[in-house]
From TrEMBL:
Organism per entry: Metabacillus sediminilitoris
MF term (GO), any: cyclic-guanylate-specific phosphodiesterase activity
PROSITE patterns: EAL
Record's protein name: EAL domain-containing protein
InterPro entries: Cyclic-di-GMP_PDE-like, EAL_dom, EAL_sf
A Pfam family annotated for this UniProt entry: EAL
């Protein structure tokens, strides 16, 4: 009975409102160097993500083990994850692996690029989890296990670093441990409610023609309900993906985009970010056709669908056919994050995009890095081979812009030109 009460007390914290959580500080205390590392990551503009990896049948397995054997198993799990992590291309992302949570591991990561964080984590897990399973099976061949995984990004607003980590960890637990049905369903309903109530806002960032310094296009960016944790697109889209609502959310973004274009009478090109999950959905083209029927002022030749976030297009049965139909209707296709990894280069070879967007990891400090300028030149050559325009993302200073102009990059966007804002205000300010 006492054990059940302790377990209830532990899980009950998940269902308390945030203002009461201060009475329930986390049971684990991270060492000061780790907290300092997390703080430094945040203040330097990096994202911090919390991943919870549970062993779903650990409770049943633990009944077969002595206390010291269970401790050894959990320690081996921790060692195994660090081992596969250290041997991977993701080793620089890792802040710490913690095993305080009784069902498995809690992992803290730092991620440089906010825009790509969600898929970066999912891609990393697809690579590392099979290796971890293989590693565990080699040591415990009699243990048939499965993993439950959830993740959340740290949102630090008016609270300490440790409190922010704890709140993110609670969300990740709820996503991983779907047996905590109350919290999971609450999260699912929260995202679904946002979609049903259409509580998203679109911001616009101008894309500049470097030959004449005039606005050529706009990229629309999504924000959740203002003043909430889900205003942050990382939180919103990560929960939507884990709740299998990403298609519904992105379709809402498309409809809101059409409405905004008509409302402000925008005649410039518009870039819209979509995951391959949505572009490869068999329902996408019929849904798009219905929207075009309702918004007949929308000119498809002014619209660019941007394939985002390094997602693989492999295994998406309808993706290539949908891309073909989009082009037949006049829409153009862009590939995002070029230069950030293999998958974007592979996507270029597969779909021959009209526009290639060069990742900001290539652009950042390109004025002081000859290797990055060489990379830029190589990507421009690829664009010439495919007949693609080139857009450089993430320009933050004049010197970077001068390197782009020197290399005859077509278009550019970034804080150096303008931060995202409402399209109405941005158009007036830049006229």
């Amino acid at each position: 009975m006492e054990k059940q009460f302790r377990r209830f007390k532990k899980w009950n914290k998940l269902f308390l409102p945030l203002h009461k959580l201060r009475y329930y500080p986390p049971k684990f205390v991270l060492r000061d160097p780790v907290l300092e590392g997390v703080y430094q990551a945040i203040t330097s503009g990096q994202q911090v993500a919390v991943i919870v990896i549970n062993v779903s049948n650990l409770r049943e397995f633990s009944q077969q083990l002595e206390t010291n054997q269970l401790y050894e198993f959990k320690n081996d799990l921790k060692i195994g994850f660090k081992h596969v992590f250290d041997d991977s291309i993701y080793k620089n992302d890792l802040l710490v692996v913690h095993d305080y949570y009784s069902e498995g591991l809690t992992i803290f990561l730092r991620i440089n690029d906010e825009k790509q964080s969600v898929v970066h984590i999912e891609k990393m897990l697809r690579v590392l989890m099979p290796q971890l399973e293989k590693w565990i099976f080699a040591k415990y061949p009699y243990f048939h296990h499965t993993f439950e995984i959830g993740y959340m990004f740290m949102e630090r607003k008016q609270c300490t670093t440790q409190d922010a980590l704890y709140l993110a960890q609670q969300q990740a637990v709820a996503m991983a441990e779907k047996r905590v049905q109350t919290r999971y369903i609450e999260t699912l309903l929260e995202v679904r409610d946002i979609i049903q109530k259409r509580e998203i806002t679109l911001l616009a960032q101008p894309i500049i023609d470097l030959s004449n310094k005039r606005i050529k296009a706009w990229e629309f960016l999504t924000r959740g309900p203002k003043g909430t944790a889900l205003e942050n697109p990382l939180q919103l889209f990560s929960l939507a993906r884990q709740s299998n609502l990403i298609y519904d959310l992105e379709l809402l973004v498309l409809e809101k985009s059409f409405q905004m274009i008509e409302r402000v009478k925008c005649v410039d090109d518009v870039f819209l970010n979509f995951t391959p999950i949505t572009l490869g959905n068999k329902r996408f083209i019929p849904a798009l056709e219905k929207l075009l029927d309702r918004h007949q002022n929308i000119n498809p030749y002014k619209m660019i669908f941007e394939v985002t976030e390094r997602d693989s297009i492999e295994g998406l049965t309808f993706f290539r056919d949908n891309i073909k139909q989009l082009r037949q209707k006049g829409f153009r296709i862009a590939v995002d994050d070029t230069g950030a990894g293999y998958s974007s280069l592979h996507t270029i070879s597969e779909i021959m995009p009209d526009i290639i967007k060069i990742d900001r990891s290539v652009i950042q400090d390109i004025d002081t890095n000859r290797v990055k300028e060489s990379m830029l030149k190589g990507l421009i050559l690829i664009a010439k081979e495919t007949g693609s325009l080139v857009v450089a993302e993430g320009i933050e200073k004049k010197e970077e812009a001068e390197v782009l102009k020197r290399n005859h990059v077509d278009l550019a966007q970034g804080y150096f030109y303008a931060k995202p804002g409402t399209l109405e205000k941005e158009r007036v300010a830049l006229l």
